[in-house]
Amino acid sequence: MEKLLLVEDDPDLIPTLSAFLQGEGFRIISATGQTQAASALCEQQPDLALVDISLQEGNGFGVCRQARELNIPVIFLTACGDEFSVVAGLDMGADDYIAKPFRPRELVSRIRSVLRRNGRQKSLLTVGDIVLDPDKGTVSKRGRAVFLSALEYKLLLLLLQHKGQLLSRDRLLEEIWDSGGEFVNDNTLTVYMKRLREKLEDDPGKPRYIKTLRGLGYRLEEDGC
């Protein structure tokens, strides 16, 4: 589980954004100013820092400077249209920026992209004897290749990224909408989950990994039992 440092002094944004990112499988540490952030960077060694440029105590540029000295990647959170801050942050070595207000899903995509580029995201995703390699886009079971469609691959990736967590049908539909150019609705989601089980489970009728929670959604069991 990747560890993120959120440096933000907005009392309304911290708990909301922290809860969302935790739901995406990240561990969150928060700081409200430059002094707290400096301590967290040294003591906690996060995998990435999300830094608001405007802080009541200190500023995001100072946080970015220290993070870069520790080889910790940085994504700046900036006010919409603040071009000077964006340029200054990137010149200091920030890896990316996103303007407020931002879409949470876009932020998660940016975070994962920066983690991958910096080699801080676990390269292989596994459950039991199933292995997904995001860098190569391959899936194997007991060392043998499993061939998935684009939509099946996306479903498995989402389940692996949220092992042990309930993913509602609405959430899955939102994430995979039009994946691979295929139209997806509630019925086709059921069909693709069935196909995924047929390719991955030893006994698709009694799935070990991909569990259905009736009326709620799906969950990938961490221990496969």
- How many strands, what sense, and barrel or not for the largest sheet? 5 strands, parallel
Look at the helices and sheets and give the structural class.
alpha/beta
CATH homologous superfamily label of the largest domain: Response regulator
From N to C, what is the helix and strand string? EHEHEHEHEHEEEEHEHHEE
Strand content: 15-25%
Helix content: 40-55%
Explained architecture:
The protein is an alpha/beta fold and 225 residues long. It folds into two domains: 3-117, Rossmann fold (3-Layer(aba) Sandwich), CATH 3.40.50.2300; 125-220, Arc Repressor Mutant, subunit A, CATH 1.10.10.10. The chain contains eight helices and twelve strands. The protein has helices at residues 13-23, 34-44, 60-69, 83-91, 104-117, 150-161, 169-176, 186-200, and strands spanning 3-7, 27-31, 48-52, 74-79, 96-100, 125-127, 130-133, 138-141, 144-145, 166-168, 210-213, 217-220. Strands 2-1-3-4-5 form a five-stranded parallel sheet, sandwiched between helices. A four-stranded antiparallel sheet has the order 6-7-8-9, covered by helices on one side. The longest helix is centred in the C-terminal third of the chain and has 15 residues, at 186-200. The model has no long low-confidence stretch (mean pLDDT 86).
Question: Concise description?
Answer:
The protein is α/β, with parallel strands linked by helices and 225 residues long. It has 8 helices and 12 strands. Helix content is 40%, strand content 22%.
